[in-house]
Amino acid sequence: MKQLDIIVADRFKLVNYISSGTYGEIYEAIDLNTKSRERVALKMERTKLADSLTRESFFYEKLQKGKSTGMLKLHFPTDVCDEYRVMGMELLGPSLWDLKYFCGGKLSLKTVLLIADQAICRLKSLHDQGIIHRDLKPDNFLMGRGREGNKIYLVDMGLAREKVLAPGNPMTYNGDQANSFLGTNDYAPRAAHQLHCQTYRDDMESFGYVLIDLLKDKLPWSCMTTTVGGQSPEQQMGSKKRRITLDELCEDLPAVFKQYFEHVRSLRYNQRPNYSKLRQRFAAEFKRQGFSHDYVFDWTEKRFKEAVAEPAEEAYVSFSSSSHLS
């Protein structure tokens, strides 16, 4: 990591650059207002760009008041400092994207089932507060640190929005009409490609694609990266998602994954998913496979094997805390 020594908002000392995206950058920083000099993640975006941090800060504060488990803790609500908007957040561990590639490009069934159980709880907590994430992807699920190292956190609320009921009209959302694509191509729900406003079922559809991606290394449409016949990659992916059968999507996977999508696709526009039923089905598959609920993920095992095989100082694998901005 790039070493820094800059003070922001008379409070945060930047020590490491973590990542950057379309709207800004994330740094590891020391909170000088805490006796323990707590390390935090500082998200910064230029004021001349569209303001995503104010909305994101609002949602984190709302989730904190609701005491939702596995949601990022906000240390410093969004404020303007010189040419930047700044938000201070809890410093977390690696993302599922980082860990997937650390483990060779895909994860085992056991690890994915462990992820599914926790992540569905996070989505229920989010939806209980009337919030739709609208950008679920492996990058936006982070592991905790230290004693919370086995806990999955849902982050990056930059595209999130409060859900307002719109009976019978999926194009209507809080008086607005969707007029542009929202999300990340690979994981976006079909509704996003159709420019429909997203709701609970769309978050669940996106998360289903995340699970398939973690298990298989890529999705059936991941290769669509160039314009073909006048269709952009985004349009091609949307068409593929609408055409593909669940048997094709879930090929070579346990039946529980097809059942997951069947439930999600059966939901009406404003209908809440049966989160408990989905968790129970994944738990039943976990038991059927004979897995032990020991919270030993693939990366835990890989780190242990490396530590045994190599000198201690060489075995440590450092992961950056990142909420990939989009």
TrEMBL record:
**Which SMART domains does this chain map to?**
S_TKc
Which Enzyme Commission number(s) are on file for it?
A: 2.7.11.1
Taxonomy, superkingdom = Eukaryota
Name the enzyme group at the top EC level. transferase
Signal sequence span is none
Q: Which Gene3D superfamilies match?
A: Transferase(Phosphotransferase) domain 1
Q: Which Pfam families match?
A: Pkinase
One MF term from GO for this chain? ATP binding
Which stretches make up the Protein kinase domain? Answer: 12-296
Question: What PANTHER family does UniProt report for this protein, alphabetically?
Answer: CASEIN KINASE-RELATED (PTHR11909)
Know the name of this protein? non-specific serine/threonine protein kinase
Q: Which lineage is the organism of this entry classified under, starting from the top rank?
A: Eukaryota, Fungi, Dikarya, Ascomycota, Pezizomycotina
